[in-house]
Every structure is written in C-alpha cells, then in structure tokens.
Design goal:
Layout: H1 2-6, H2 17-44, H3 62-89
Length: about 110
C-alpha cells in the first residue's frame, strides 16, 4: 500500500461542470415538482381539512422566508465545515491544491 501513497492523489467527487449543472437543475425541478404536488393535494383534495399551512408550507412574509433560508444555510454550512475540520484534523483528508482545474479543458468557474 506504500506505492499507492506515492501515486497521483485521488480527487474526491470530481465531475465535469456540465454534470454538476445538470444534477443541480434536476434537484431544483424535483423540489418544484414536490411543492406543486403538495399544492395540488391541498387545493383539490376531496376533503378541505388539509391546507398548505397544515404541512408547514404557509408563507407568512417574505422576510420570514429569508430568515428561514438564512438559518438553513447557516446550519448546513456549519455542519459541513465541522465535518471537514474533524476529518482534516484526524488526518483522513489532505489538501493537495486549490483553485486549479483537474482537467485542463474545463472552465474553472463552473467547477
């Protein structure tokens, strides 16, 4: 296994920028589809007992939406940073470079 440590480093989760954009658009479409299906379920169900606010999708104000997005982004970012710091500190990962293209033909800003 000592020969593997001297070989080229493994680039974790490296995919082309076009693949990243395609996956992100598919996730966005799935989220919009879920919200639309929830709206249809609540609007056109045979019983009017179920509303969007019952399932937590009531928008009280745009300011509250921004606060919710900000809190969600902050919590998610902190969790990822904490996991990265722990893995880096334990020696599980090693930073071999940054601000570079692995594949020279790719556009940097997409990746």
């Amino acid at each position: 296994s000592s020969s593997s440590s001297s070989s080229q480093p493994y680039y974790l989760n490296h995919v082309r920028g076009s693949t990243r954009i395609r996956h992100a658009s598919q996730r966005l479409a799935a989220a919009v589809g879920t919200l639309f299906a929830s709206y249809l379920l609540c609007s056109y169900s045979s019983s009017s007992l179920l509303t969007l606010s019952d399932i937590g999708l009531h928008v009280s104000s745009f300011q509250q939406v921004l606060i919710d997005f900000g809190c969600g982004f902050g919590v998610g970012s902190c969790i990822v940073l904490l996991m990265f710091a722990c893995e880096w500190r334990m020696g599980w990962i090693r930073i071999v470079g940054f601000w570079e293209n692995v594949v020279k033909e790719e556009v940097f800003w997409i990746n």
